[in-house]
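Posted in: Structural Biology > Protein-Ligand Complexes

Title: Requesting predicted complex, magnesium ion in pocket

I'd be grateful if someone could produce the 3D structure tokens for the following input. Sequence and ligand are given below.
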Amino acid sequence: KDTFNKIAAGEVVERPSSVVKELVENSIDAGSKEIHVEIQGGGEELIRVLDKGEGIEPDDMLKAFMPHATSKIMTADDLFRIRTMGFRGEALSSISSVSKVLMRSRTEGSDGREVYIEGGDLKYEKYSPMDRGTLIEVRDLFYNVPARKKFLKTRSKEAGTIGEILSKIAIAYPEISFSLVSDGKTLLKTYGTGDQKDVIRQVYTKKIQENTFPFHEEFDSLRISGFVGNEEISRGNRSQQSIFVNRRLVQSRTITVAAENAFRAFATVSRFPFLILNIDILPEIIDVNIHPQKAEIKFEDDRHIFKVVFDTIHKTMAEGLK
Ligand code: ADP
Ligand code: MG
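-- Reply #1 --
Done. Output follows.
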């Protein structure tokens, strides 16, 4: 069972940034308007996430660490209309099997509780006072899986990846204020103003805003919005592109190809635009359940999505450059 958990952990927890992503998604699901992340040693030594969300009931705290324990899916049908970031109930159990985890949490009407789990084994649990919300600390990631530790990059690279992922999550959730402190240095701070443009300003250099055009269109039950342009800073690759479907950072060949094809007619320097693209769509007609890290997305009607994205980007560039 122990080995099984460690192997399963590898699918969800590949590196420190995947831990940060899972923990922050849990904080979002808990309705927190404030999420603070602190890391040491690129996240290998310590990842700490503090939120002011709804917290976990004392009796549910240990359950949260069991494989396939989720409070978010009640019926099989729920799987086809996912509205939360998490739904597999795998993250906490996986993370806790390959690290040392301390969790402290309190809900509105209960006493706070703290648990400490090492390599999947409960070491202690106790009463612990705190404000409403949840604190989780993950130490010594992969301390018991040396083979996995070998695949980590340098600590500054891992810290950089954490910064990139958290920045993108912050863009998708402009109403939440985020902070990231790495070895005592603040790498990211957003203010929860609710305006995506404010977060983009905070995350990217000023230059990126100059030739970047906003868009916002609605087609029946589908909403598409975002910013496109300024390929000068796209560094000839896709690192400056973010696609969010129902506020989840995803990979989608359909959307990427549609946006780049539409952009091509206006490209002067590089065929890769700077792109922030949000699509809000009925959760029933997408499938996010095909990848362990929930990254690649499939649409029921691919051609429709392609057309919507192509037309929107084309129109935005044509009008923006007029
Ligand atoms: P999932 O998010 O897929 O449900 P996780 O393993 O990430 O699975 O979390 C297990 C459960 O622990 C969640 O369903 C939730 O009930 C609880 N939980 C985890 N993190 C938090 C948090 N920050 N605030 C409130 N509840 C949390
Ligand atoms: Mg989760």
